[in-house]
Backbone:
């Protein structure tokens, strides 16, 4: 697809497979150029050109990878969406850290003092992107970003009588359905046996359950691409293109794989729901919990023993890699900790 539709070509130094491998490695692990030079034995200039070249090729696939909106039918059996006939999906914004010039930092600073771009994401019921708009400053309100998306010549379109589920940070009107204000809304509010007591609370509970797809999608997106979880080493213009490419690749994976490997590996917290605008309602941290593990709090003594074992392992040599530790280090740590506890 990148070759035939995206226009990606083999160069004098690298073929298409290697270019794609370099690009995927960078966005999946957010590694520096110096690490890539040693790993792929290419010059820094070559790697920088590959990032830009592959990113542009992925972006050219957007007509093929973006999901076409499909309204919820009257006979839908989906327990989350069957209550919202003609609904096209959900939308919200999230903050993704970025690198900007010193003079632009005040505009990109969020309420949490992060330097980030406000990205509008529109999702379908099956957790695929319908529309993405990166690039707005982190200080911009969600409603302002949405207005810009609607006013663009090739921006977001809401076919009638369709609509999207939104939180109360957006205007409740034609094409956008927000929950009732001043009513319980978070999914956590309905756990532990609590049930709605009024029609408005019942609506909010069902609205939150369906719109929670946006929270889960942002979690999976950031869990898959580490370059979206922290500040990268690329200027804002390129970072926006990378964000778009990550979203398109997310759709490709969801289309090609019956089970999303990230969704299968991790249990994403679904106990979230936005009840207002502002930065506190956006996902700026990705928390994932591996399934099948028993967790407990470590004591101060155990923490000290772990740090001591890690220092000894580094001093011994043979386990340190450019971007972490080599395979087999966990077995060494386990043995070292058992010896210290015996």
Residues:
């Amino acid at each position: 697809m990148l070759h035939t539709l995206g226009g990606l070509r083999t160069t004098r130094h690298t073929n298409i497979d290697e270019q794609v491998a370099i690009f995927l490695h960078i966005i999946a692990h957010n590694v520096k150029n110096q690490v890539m030079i040693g790993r792929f034995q290419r010059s820094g200039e070559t790697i920088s050109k590959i990032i830009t070249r592959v990113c542009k090729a992925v972006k050219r696939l957007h007509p093929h990878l973006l999901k076409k909106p499909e309204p919820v039918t009257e006979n839908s059996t989906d327990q989350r969406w069957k209550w919202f006939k003609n609904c096209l999906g959900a939308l919200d914004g999230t903050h993704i850290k970025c690198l900007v010039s010193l003079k632009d930092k005040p505009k990109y600073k969020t309420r949490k003092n992060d330097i980030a771009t406000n990205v509008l994401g529109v999702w379908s019921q099956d957790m695929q992107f319908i529309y993405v708009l990166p690039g707005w400053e982190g200080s911009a309100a969600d409603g302002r970003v949405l207005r810009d998306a609607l006013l663009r010549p090739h921006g977001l379109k809401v076919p009638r009588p369709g609509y999207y589920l939104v939180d109360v940070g957006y205007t409740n009107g034609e094409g956008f359905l927000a929950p009732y204000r001043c009513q319980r809304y978070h999914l956590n509010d309905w756990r532990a046996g609590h049930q709605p007591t009024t029609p408005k609370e019942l609506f909010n509970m069902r609205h939150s359950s369906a719109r929670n797809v946006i929270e889960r999608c942002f979690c999976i997106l950031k869990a898959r691409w580490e370059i979206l979880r922290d500040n990268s080493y690329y200027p804002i213009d390129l970072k926006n293109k990378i964000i778009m490419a990550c979203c398109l690749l997310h759709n490709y994976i969801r289309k090609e794989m019956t089970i999303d490997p990230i969704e299968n590996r991790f249990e994403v917290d679904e106990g979230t729901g936005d009840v207002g605008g502002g930065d506190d309602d956006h996902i700026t941290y990705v928390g994932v919990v591996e399934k099948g593990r028993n967790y407990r709090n470590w004591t101060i003594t155990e923490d000290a023993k772990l740090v001591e074992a890690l220092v000894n392992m580094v001093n011994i040599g043979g386990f340190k890699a450019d971007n972490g530790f080599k395979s087999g280090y966990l077995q060494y740590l386990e043995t070292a900790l058992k010896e210290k506890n015996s």
About this structure: Residues 266-295 have pLDDT under 50 and may be disordered. The first helix runs from residue 16 to 29. The CA atoms of residues 13 and 35 lie 19 Å apart. The first strand starts at residue 87 and ends at 97.
